[in-house]
Write a structure and sequence with these properties.
The chain is mostly helical and 225 residues long. Helix content is 74%, strand content 0%. The protein has a single domain, classed as Tetracycline Repressor, domain 2.
């Protein structure tokens, strides 16, 4: 897996995406994602997608096979884009203090899960375990773990962190807690002051970020100045 990750860094984002999807496929997937974000998976038809993408409805079958297969491609497309964006993001903060890097990475993960929460409505366990997606997700998670591990070690070396929890355990805590909040809105909204769906989304994200930061920094034994 790590060999494949290193290989990916030799390509630009455009080159790597081009190896996975054609320009036309990426255009269709961008349109599909925009519509699903607005109307949900069930509320978005193949005809809606083809109309907005300005293509014949039969082209969806030509490029993907079916709506379900297009959704599998869309999920893979989103995973790849988020992974590449995270690599760039991590690069921009790599010279910062370890506590800043850890804080920003946690906020980034939570933000991305909330931003693309509509995927959780149609992405099934079966879909996640298809061979191509399984590999993409594995490499995606390993990238996060590697970056978190670098920050933990840097923090311990500089005396900012006291403990060395496993990076994979921190990632599990962050993703697992955030997904629980996203998937259990009826429960969590009882504890989040809000006026409407939009304010709930904003306040729930802020609340889980704050709680995760406190939890993770406690696990790290963060010694603030």
């Amino acid at each position: 897996m790590f060999i494949r990750e290193e290989k990916m860094t030799t390509f630009t984002k455009t080159e790597y995406m081009a190896k996975k999807f054609s320009d036309k496929q990426m255009h269709i997937l961008d349109v599909a994602e925009e519509l699903i974000a607005q109307k949900g998976f069930e509320g978005t038809s193949v005809r809606d997608i083809s109309t907005k993408a300005n293509i014949n409805v039969a082209m969806i079958s030509y490029y993907f096979g079916s709506k379900e297969k297009m959704m599998a491609s869309l999920y893979q497309y989103r995973v790849l884009k988020t992974r590449e964006n995270f690599s760039e993001f991590a690069d921009t903060i790599k010279n910062g203090k370890p506590e800043m890097q850890m804080k920003e990475m946690i906020k980034y993960i939570v933000n991305q899960l909330f931003k693309y929460n509509y995927f959780h409505g149609f992405v099934t366990q079966e879909l996640r375990h298809t061979e191509s997606l399984k590999d993409e997700l594995m490499e995606f998670y390993q990238l996060f773990v590697r970056k978190l591990d670098e920050v933990i070690k840097k923090g311990v070396t500089t005396g900012v962190f006291t403990f060395t929890p496993k990076a994979e355990d921190l990632l599990t805590t962050v993703i697992g807690s955030t997904l629980f909040v996203i998937r259990n809105k009826n429960f969590y909204e009882l504890y989040v002051p809000h006026k409407d769906a939009e304010s709930y989304q904003k306040e729930a994200e802020k609340k889980i970020k704050m709680n995760l930061l406190m939890s993770v920094f406690a696990l790290l034994g963060y010694a603030s100045e």
